[in-house]
Specification:
With 350 residues, the protein is of the alpha/beta class. It is 46% helix and 21% strand. The structure holds glycine (GLY).
């Protein structure tokens, strides 16, 4: 088992290990005064893990109810958020009680946002069950739902009370969902860790999953500790995401988030190498890793559509956007640029 302490506006632990889901009840009871818990989960994860989650909470003295919504990004909207808030009200949830986000990134973002809004803040424990949620979205306090105008446009920064990653839940994850999570893992290597890139190249990330997840969480912890509210350094975590989010939206969320991030990282790295601003080794290693972990590196979408969607990105500041540029292996820098330059790079990198 690995434990990582996150020091943000709340200090909390991220526990990573086999079977740690069974510790949820006791860990939650030790952290909280209330004894009412609402589990939020989706129609894929609920049938697999809701019962075990309910049991561990009940054994620790919690009264438990479960809210299940249809799996998929389409549910991450203000309508589902309102349904969830109404459910909390019907359960008479108080600020001493707890919301348990059981599932992948959509569940964590939605439940985290609802918990942060209800009564101006009810404790939330993240129990991520996908690789992507374990290494990225469950840690660091970003919560959100989408609007038709763009992804994650309505949200808060609200840190969880605990993140519990039971890596055995990855066993039931469809292969392609594990693979999309690998895009975020590769991202961490590209932005901050040559050592992680080497591990991913020479070893099998799935076999070493506990170590790999803990390594990503440590990297994210350091970034979040420095810039919790995403005003500067934290934007480094958006490598591949400006183009990635735009592609995701233009594909109507039919392509996985991780796949879109992989395409975004590949286009940007190719462009910067061709522009003489990034060593070829970055492109070579990135392409090798994308291939090894079965991730895409290009899209057929017309550039105009990608650019139009990128303009609606929440990361935009006026006419400027921050690009994340690989400089050496395991090191990226932030560069403020305009949309004309983004358009030029997009053409160059395709
Ligand atoms: N997923 C990017 C961040 O947490 O900032």
């Amino acid at each position: 088992m690995e434990q990582v302490l996150v020091r943000a506006s709340r200090v909390y632990e991220v526990i990573i290990g086999e079977g740690v889901l069974s510790e949820l009840g006791l860990r939650a009871a030790a952290l909280l005064r209330g004894r009412r818990a609402v589990i939020v989960t989706d129609s894929n994860v609920g049938p697999l893990y809701a019962r075990r989650t309910e049991e561990t909470l009940r054994d620790a003295g919690f009264a438990v109810t479960t809210f299940t919504f249809p799996a998929g990004e389409a549910s991450k909207n203000p309508g589902t958020l309102l349904e969830l808030l109404t459910f909390f009200a019907k359960q008479e949830l108080t600020r001493e009680d707890v919301v348990i986000a059981l599932g992948g990134g959509v569940t964590g973002d939605l439940a985290g946002l609802a918990a942060s809004l209800y009564l101006r803040g009810v404790p939330c424990i993240q129990v991520p069950t996908s690789l992507l949620a374990m290494v990225d979205s469950s840690v660091g306090g970003k919560t959100a739902v989408d609007l038709p105008e763009g992804k994650n446009l309505v949200g808060t920064f609200t840190q969880p009370y605990l993140v519990l990653c039971d890596i055995t839940t990855l066993d039931t994850l469809p292969k392609e969902v594990f693979e999309e999570g690998m895009a975020e893992v590769i991202k961490y290597g590209m932005i901050r860790s040559k050592e992680l890139l080497e591990l991913l190249l020479t070893d099998d990330a799935e076999r070493k999953r506990e170590r790999v997840i803990a390594q990503c969480v440590r990297l994210k912890r350091d970034v979040v500790a420095e810039d919790e509210q995403d005003f500067g350094e934290r934007q480094i975590l958006n490598f591949g995401h400006t183009l990635g989010h735009a592609i995701e939206r233009e594909m109507n969320y039919k392509l996985f988030h991780g796949d879109c991030v992989a395409i975004g990282m590949a286009i940007m790295t190719r462009a910067l190498v061709r522009d003489g601003r990034c060593p070829e080794s970055c492109e070579k290693i990135l392409e090798k890793l994308l291939k090894k972990y079965k991730l895409p590196n290009s899209t057929e979408l017309p550039s105009e559509r990608i650019l139009a969607a990128a303009r609606a990105d929440k990361k935009r500041r006026g006419e400027k956007i921050t690009l994340i540029e690989p400089k050496t292996l395991g090191n990226c820098v932030l560069v403020k640029t305009d949309f004309a330059e983004l358009a030029r790079l997009l053409e160059l990198g395709r």
